[in-house]
Design a protein that fits this description.
By secondary structure, the chain is mainly α. Among the domains are: 98 residues, Cytochrome Bc1 Complex, Chain D, domain 2 (Orthogonal Bundle); 45 residues, no CATH class. The longest helix has 24 residues. The radius of gyration is 34 Å and the shape is elongated. The N and C termini lie far apart (105 Å). About 13% of the residues have low confidence. The structure holds heme C (HEC).
Length: 242
Amino acid sequence: MSHSFTMVAARVLVGCCVLIAAVVVRPSAQAPQASPTYTAEQAAAGRATYQQSCASCHGQNLDDGQFAGPLKGDAFRQKWGGRGVDALHTFMSAQMPPASPGSLGDAGYVQVIAYLLQQNGVSAGTQALPADPAALRAMVFPAAPAGPGGGVTAGVVLPRGPARANPLDRITPVTDETLIKPAEGDWLNWRRTYDAQGFSPLKQITKANVGQLRAAWTWTLRKYGSADTNGWRRSVPRRPPT
Ligand code: HEC
């Protein structure tokens, strides 16, 4: 009894393992497979082309451009890593450089890709990076390494984070009208109005209760001192614009 139970359990276990192995090992038909290959000569030629045609926007070091994003490092590989190299080739030859897309010719783009591969951690080898789109499709651009935070599997789209409140949404713009005729509770100008009345129309504070006022908040003006108002006067318009 216990013997045959063990046998059944063992068979079930073996069966499960075969099933799991089948699920894990079965390659997906279309996915790119191979690591890209390129030669050191291709990367060197690509570097020269890059410096001439791309560095002005993407930067001398590929991640220090003033006008365009990095072409190496984690952020770049998050986007292009794990995909066929043909995706990059198609994008670059259709869009880059923006002033003359396609101008490098097939071999030129392939050389620049070789340089990008080198800069993204793939070592040069003896096999050249091919220009043939089908061959490029079979090669995977290196994915970003999973750092301490984990990294994201290629192709996974993360949901957007919660919307952040923009503090400017709650700020009411000051207009000429509000400066000329401020709302009762506002004190937008030095001495409140352009004719320098220094008078608040609010009625909560009266002769009877003014003696109970206490300082709740103060701000010391470093540069001009609290008694000298010229700095403030200079920073606000003193007359309505004509
Ligand atoms: C005039 C500035 C300029 C030049 C020169 C230029 N690029 Fe770009 N590049 C951009 C801009 C801007 C973007 C972003 C475009 C977009 O997102 O649609 C970009 C995007 C890219 C991307 C995609 C980056 C990403 O994060 O997905 C690649 C790859 C690229 N460029 C490669 C090149 C190559 C290779 C060259 C040289 C042959 C080149 N670029 C020359 C401005 C430039």
